[in-house]
Amino acid sequence: MSFIDHLEALRWHIIRAAIAIVVFTTAAFLAKDFLFHDLILGPSRADFWTYRLFNQVGEWLSLPGLHMDKPSFDLQNRQMSGQLTMHISTSFVVGLALAFPYTFWEIWRFVKPGLYPHEQANSRGAVFFVSVLFIIGLLFGYYIAAPLSINFLASYQLDATIENQIDLQSYISTLTTMSLSCAFVFELPMIVFFLAKAGLITPEIMRLYRKHAIVVVLIIAAIITPPEITSQIIVTIPIVLLYEVSISIAAVVGRNRTKQLNERLAENNGVA
């Protein structure tokens, strides 16, 4: 294929991905009641699943520190077109998140023909695992990281006379940022997989810099969570586990690359 043909193929992949995003965005826009009352505003209510879970676990383990009260704040809209604007922008973000697996599949369909047959075979299932990790990270961010941040920040007071009246845009920005950040952080094993396939990273390097990685993880957890030790630990644990899983993935990829290189050397020696 010529360069122009590649651009034409890429254009149609982008168009199909854009159509999927528009479809999911439109569906989210039309499902306004579910999108905002149940999904977006869920963490602002006392009956949210996460708060009830932490309260039950706190009672079972006799740990009052896990008890989470209803976030004490009122949401406010201070702009004439604020609610309409947030309806459109939030629907677009939800559409992007829902269309991510299909969008990645379209990108993969464009990239895959440029790989060698053995690279295509070794990368089988990439779309599935990328999508699964993204969904797991998104759910973790929505049900764990975001509620912890919202509950802490909304309940924090400098003085009892100061009321928390949170702007709608600030609340939704916190919720979406936390959820999407966790979704992309959970892609760490797949990122390591592709870097290991390219020979840019090895399990030995990851083990050598494990302590440095843990420090980076703690910094990331501190950024995406409120300055409260419990929520930081809850977010840090799965990321550290993902790092350890990534080391195992890099080790498997490294062994496969070594085996393939030995087979090719044997074939070349046989031909010679």
Automatic annotation (TrEMBL):
Cell compartment(s), UniProt: Cell membrane; Membrane
The answer to whether UniProt assigns keyword Ligase to this entry is no
The protein's UniProt keywords, in alphabetical order, are:
Cell membrane, Membrane, Protein transport, Translocation, Transmembrane, Transmembrane helix, Transport
Question: How does this protein sit in the membrane?
Answer: Multi-pass membrane protein
GO CC term (a single one): TAT protein transport complex
Q: Which residues cross the membrane?
A: 12-31, 84-105, 126-150, 170-196, 208-227, 233-254
Q: What is this protein called?
A: Sec-independent protein translocase protein TatC
- Name of the gene: tatC
